[in-house]
Amino acid sequence: MFAATLLRVTRFLLVPGRGVPFGNHWSRQWARRRGFTWAPEPPGTPVMFADRVAALQSVLVSSEEPAVLVAHSAGCLTVAHWAREHAGPVVAALLVTPPLVEDAPRERLPFRSLLVVSRDDPQCSFEDGVAYATAWGGEVIDAGPVGHLDSSSGFGPWPDGEKLLARLAAE
């Protein structure tokens, strides 16, 4: 059902957080699907946002095809940094549990976004997640008590995320 609902956009760029997601992490599972590409590949060690932004820009300019960004954790901040400096064929973004970083970009994103916020994320309070969504011009998705929405929080498969992505791709 997931693939059948993705009608308008066929390019999905997965923007990882700081580390390499475990094999059962939802983003790793999505990366194995046709049309999904890491942008950049998950890092093995922390790298500067400038390097991540440059890698995302490189993948984005490799095609004029519209893209939906799917970012987790620090990947959300990579997207915000990218949007501050670049423009491109991004039509929407699914931003999942960004960590609280005081100097994170707070400018409105130039594309639609859904920001998934957890009620008990150890890296960002619900209120701070809502503040990000407000600053970025995104819609808040209250995910409930899902931790950081990663493997250690019990997320391998994430069917609700698939529904959100299908919604973004079809709009």
Give structural notes:
Keywords: Hydrolase. It holds the Pfam family Ser_hydrolase. InterPro entries: AB_hydrolase_fold, RBBP9/YdeN. One of its GO terms (molecular function) is hydrolase activity. By secondary structure, this protein is an alpha/beta fold. The protein has a single domain (10-170), classed as 3-Layer(aba) Sandwich (Rossmann fold). It has helices at 2-5, 26-31, 49-60, 74-85, 126-136, 159-170; strands spanning 11-15, 36-38, 67-72, 90-96, 112-117, 139-142. It has a 6-stranded parallel beta sheet with strand order 2-1-3-4-5-6, sandwiched between helices. 39% of the residues are buried.
The number of helical runs is: 6
Q: In CATH terms, what is the fold-level topology?
A: Rossmann fold
Please give the order of strands in the largest beta sheet: 2-1-3-4-5-6
Shape: globular
Rg over CA atoms, rounded to whole Å, is: 14 Å
Helix content: 25-40%
Number of domains: 1
The CATH architecture category equals 3-Layer(aba) Sandwich
Quick one: CATH superfamily? Answer: Alpha/Beta hydrolase fold, catalytic domain
Number of strands: 6
